[in-house]
Amino acid sequence: MNSKLSPELRHHVRVHAARSRAARGDALASALVEPFGAEPGPVGLAIAFTGSLEDLKAAGFQVRSVLSHPTRSFSIATGTVMPEHLEALAAIEHVVELEGDLRMRPQLNFSVPEIRADAVHVGPVQYRGKCVIVGVIDSGIDWRHASFVTPAGDTRILALWDMRLTANATEQAGPNGVGVLYDQSHLNSALHGDPGSVRSLDDEAGDEGGHGTHVTGIAAGNGIPATCCHTGKTYVGVAPEADIVFVRYPLSLGAEFGASSGMIAALGFIFEFAKGVNKPAVANISLGANLGPHDGTSLLEQTIDMLMADAPGRAVVVAAGNETKERTHVQGSVPGHGNVEVEFSTRDGFESFAQVDVWYARAGTLNLELIEGSTSLGTTLHGQDGIYVANDHDATRFFPVVVDGTINGLYGRDNNFRIRMQRPRSGNIPTEDWKLNLINPSATAVTFHCWIESVTHQPVFLAQVNPPDGKVRASADATLTIPSTAATAFCVANHESRTDFWNCFPSTGIRDSSSRGPVARNAAANPKPDLAAPGLQITSAKADAANLPGNCCSCCPDACCCLYQDLDGTSMSAPHVTGAIALMLELNPRLTREGIFKHLKASARPPPPGGTPETWGMGKLDVQAAMQSVWAESGWGNDACASSSGGGGGGGGGGGLSGMSLAEMPRASVLPPSLRILRARLLALPEGELLASTVSRHFSEVRRLINTNRRVATLWHRGSGPRMLRCLLDGALDPRAPAALEAQAQREYVERWWGLLARYGSPKLRAGLVRHRERVFNLLSSPLAAQVHAFSPEVVQ
Q1: What percent of the chain has pLDDT over 90?
Q2: What is the pTM of this model?
Q3: Of 74, 100, 126, which residue sits at a domain end?
């Protein structure tokens, strides 16, 4: 079979080929086909290719999304294809690899202070994620929850793409016809009118337990709803004023387009949407899979790297996983001319197929013998495939076990055996002890890793006990799930900040379930995890039907509405980092992934004594210190509302107006939209041209004084200077926006700052400050659009 096909896709090809044999009475072929029904369905997949997309379409590929690398000549497309066309796709010369879907599984009041995010929420200069997009890919979101609604009653969700729905006649289909897309106006109409018009919700009653709502609440919930025991704004997320873009993701492989290929499309959607509205964005993935190379080379992980390449104002955060105690990983070394037996057990109640992944050193050679109980089913040679019959003494519950061998794989990957135990035609996989006998025919030892797919009631490897008896047993190391091993993703571990609901015995250690590094290959170049954040007993928003307006009991909202809940896991740790990065991008929206990493590393609090990088990464997340690190490098005014809404300006040392003054921008057609509007509004005033030329003349000197003179900088911030710039831009668009100078206390600080500029500035600046003082203060005293309307109403129509 074509080596470009991943093991998941080879399985679909094999099942398709078995259908005709099953019709002729072949029992083994019938067992392969039975779980999939009589008719084949489309297969979800991702394709890496270097040529024309039309070639893929001609071979039967139905395109869902396409992402092209900005600096390298390859693309990744996602979509579906009928199983009979898979080999034709693989035969196309410029197709590099075809990767099938893998199942992915889900992985506040005390936690926000723990990471010191609350310290940047308050004060004269506040950072709360304003004008930054937090993108979440998860089980769903309860968009009705007031934590995702502004105080005015409007949604904070800019877009909600539900991949799991099929659009009806009144709904807008999602990108490339997949799912349903609800925009902000539609969600607002549902909030203020008929909530039933939006069908997308979190699966609060399902396996996910409101997972996506909880995750989003940690990253960006505003905590406005009160509970019976706490006032409003108790359970506030890390970036409570961030905008939200949510993708409800098909966790099941049963969906036509889901799992890992759906994740690729979801990531592309979030960052393309953010680009369209000129805002920085950080995406959160609190999901993971256990099958794959665990070295950052899966197509999903390469998509993350592709989206981060040469792209400031972007980041992806991924939960490390909760696999340390799940007995889903072993590792070891097979001696030359020797063998190692890896033992695992299937368990009662496992209602699906089971998969075990064996990866061994690329330069090595291993053969694999499958042993059921004490019976050898057969041996698969290095690089070969095999199919065997298990439980063959039971005519109704026998089942096939398929082995796919891959050697010399792409991207320098290690060699691989994928073992798939198919569910029997009747009942579930029987309880049994198994062995993988790894046989080394060469003289050189061969290192290996084995992972079991992370599914409830999955098989498990032999438990770790002391003293060791010489057998290979479950290992806590190298248990990170995919895609947390992506090189450019921020992989987040889970540390404790309390150990019970009442916080009686708080702990600051790593959570014993938190997955550990290193990655399976090239760990020195790709150290994971990156850092740790709180993930134990985190209180955040809960999906609940009682969130509908009018359904809550005002005297006891917590008991009636169940507005919040506690959940554990790295799923809860990751959104703390997501929210933190949103705050950093608010301060400087031009930060790259490398810049974000540098500031998080410089600011991380060290782990307790004995903590290792493979467990903790850089250490504990400290938002306040990270923001101070960004501030020290970037200087003043790197404001997301000013710069990102105007096209993402405002790099290091630049001001809130992208480091350029109005008169230095001669061609309005090339300006970012917000600055074009600001310039037009200002020039519409009677003395606008004079003000514009004055700003141009003195802008650089004022910026230098703020960056170099501590007294000037202090009063600039006490006078809420960055907010003043935001309000100036907002006021250029909306006559109802807050005035740039709204409070008397702020005005007093700005007047004192004005005096310091005159004191420390050049004679020309001093003269300009005296001459234009009243004009500038009048300009800041009310929204610019309202002032313009008084003189030229047609300008603001």
Answers
A1: 44
A2: 0.78
A3: 100
